[in-house]
Amino acid sequence: MSNSKTREIFVTGLKNARAMESQALAIMKPQVERIENYPDIAAKLQEHIRETEGQISRLEEILTSLAEEKSALKDATLSVTGAMAALGHTVAGDEILKNSMANFAFENFEIAAYKSLITIAELGDFAALVPPLKANLDEEIAMADWLEQNLRPTTIKFASLKEAGASAKV
């Protein structure tokens, strides 16, 4: 594979990842603001928001090192899409469950994106740029694992609150 084509693929992937992380923020921030009955989920989302902001910084540093800039159009488009996705769940009677499932799916999408980016970096002789991508990947894997481990307890708590007649929505 030609190094210029590999670089082009890598830069596009980096810009897409940067926009993807902006979308993640647009999804998580409204969710965390609405959570009342699930403080553990709110705390984990707050932690992952901070991690995501760090991931964006790492991606921007990589782009800068390649003399590239983020894609403002991709960022804006995916941020709006993320905000709309978060808003869509607010009308669901089981919003916390919908959010948990959607977040788990999105984390796995991010994991796949970083695994692909790392592969392209290795193919294109950008091995020096792999560590920050690996740091992002590790954070996404940790969040996906947490969501998976907490889906059952969240579902049980939701059902218990519903049975008790309490607000189980968020």
TrEMBL record:
Pfam families found in the cross-reference section: DUF892 (PF05974)
Superkingdom, natural source: Bacteria
UniProt keywords, alphabetically: Coiled coil
Gene3D superfamilies per record: 1.20.1260.10
Alphabetical list of InterPro entries matching this protein: DUF892_YciF-like, Ferritin-like, Ferritin-like_SF
Coiled coil segments of this chain: 42-76
Name used for this protein in its record: Ferritin-like domain-containing protein
Organism: Rhizobium lemnae
Lineage: Bacteria, Pseudomonadati, Pseudomonadota, Alphaproteobacteria, Hyphomicrobiales
